[in-house]
Design goal:
The chain has 350 residues and is α/β, with parallel strands linked by helices. The chain has a single domain, classed as TIM Barrel (Alpha-Beta Barrel), CATH 3.20.20.70. 23% of the residues lie in helices and 22% in strands. The protein is built from nine helices and 17 strands. The protein has a nine-stranded mixed sheet, covered by helices on one side. Strands 11-10-1-17-12-16 form a six-stranded antiparallel sheet. β13 and β14 form a beta hairpin. The chain is globular and about 50 Å long. The protein starts with a strand and ends with a strand.
């Protein structure tokens, strides 16, 4: 049986080797979905002050601006990709100023959202964003409003759409996803792989904190085999017609640019889209060296700077340190399963 020897996320192939900074800014949310862990929406960790958010951005951005790296013999400034999560971060007071600050640092920004803000709000916010990860919650969200938000974002930012897989509705939810996908096609029925990813997501039971379930993997619903098959379908699909030979590789659909690479000791290489990794049980990295800190950095809703959401290494609280310092080390994964898509994409080696 072949043995997994390395895992490399799509960020590795991006220009300027960006560091991915995922920031859980608080747990206030205007939705309260049953399948979402209470700690992510009950408001027990309210938004911090705007001043704290802006000072955090300054500390982290100044650190990475000052720490260059060598690529092909050249010294380069590390690019930054910020992912802002919650809670529903778009409800943070003066959130637009936070986006403006990151924009001024020339950082790429992706917001995770349920899309509930007004269409007008998204028309203004899209100017500061590189990407938006939208989740459609069928039991709470108005379908027409969601479609209008997607229409506003299409062509301006990278859009990743997750549709919560509610048992008993998976078939119709998949059809809704395909309706959204069709709106991204150009006149030739083509779409760039950077334009959109749309998938009906399997809902898993998630336990966070000390009671985490990194050694188990259990679905929220008792799905039928047909529903499981639908949710395992790819979120990024190949273009229906071939492209010209001179078309750039990433536009043609090279899986390196939107999938995670799994390499095995028999020479086999497998490219898997993010939501399919957990579905296929490929997220078992216990004992592998995880390149924490150097590729990814997380800030939790308390302001703690951690190397990954599994909490393998902490670097202090952003509100208490004057200047950020990050030792670059690799850590042996202590868990059987890695259940966070951001952590899964961090490079793993034997």
């Amino acid at each position: 049986m072949s043995r997994l020897i390395s895992v490399v996320g799509p960020h590795y192939h991006a220009p300027n080797n960006p560091v991915n900074i995922q920031w859980s800014m608080g747990n206030t949310c205007n939705f309260s979905c049953d399948y979402c862990p209470t700690i992510l929406h009950d408001g027990t960790n309210p938004w911090m002050s705007k001043d704290v958010y802006l000072k955090t951005i300054q500390k982290v951005c100044d650190y990475y601006k000052a720490h260059t790296y060598i690529h092909n013999g050249e010294e380069k400034v590390r690019a930054m990709h910020w992912e802002l999560i919650g809670g529903e971060v778009t409800t943070i007071p003066d959130f637009e100023e936070i986006l403006q600050s990151l924009y001024d640092y020339k950082a790429n920004v992706t917001v995770y959202s349920n899309g509930s803000r007004t269409v007008r709000w998204w028309e203004e916010a899209r100017n500061f964003l590189q990407g938006v990860v939208l989740t459609y919650h069928p039991l709470t969200m108005d379908k027409q409003h969601f479609k209008e938000v997607v229409d506003v974002l299409r062509g301006h930012v990278t859009v990743d759409i997750s549709i919560a897989g509610i048992s008993g509705q998976v078939n119709e939810l998949y059809d809704f996803g395909e309706e959204l996908r069709d709106s991204f096609n150009d006149n030739n029925g083509r779409q760039s792989v950077f334009d959109v990813s749309i998938a009906v997501k399997t809902m898993y039971k998630k336990l966070l904190g000390d009671n985490n379930n990194y050694d188990t993997q259990e679905t929220w619903y008792n799905y039928t085999p047909e529903e499981i098959e639908i949710m395992q379908r790819p979120g990024v699909k190949p273009n229906p017609t071939p492209m010209e030979d001179n078309t750039p590789t990433h536009v043609k659909g090279d899986p390196k640019y939107w999938s995670t690479e799994f390499k095995y000791d028999d020479g086999t290489v497998k490219y898997v889209q993010s939501h399919q990794i957990i579905n296929e049980g490929l997220n078992k990295f216990g004992g592998m060296n995880c390149h924490l800190g150097s590729e990814g950095l997380n800030i939790d809703m308390h302001g703690e700077i951690i190397s990954s959401w599994c909490g393998a290494k902490s670097f202090g609280n952003i509100t208490q340190i004057k200047e950020l310092e990050l030792p670059i080390e690799h850590y042996s994964c202590p868990f059987e399963f890695c259940n966070n898509l951001n952590d899964i994409s961090i490079t793993k080696t034997l």
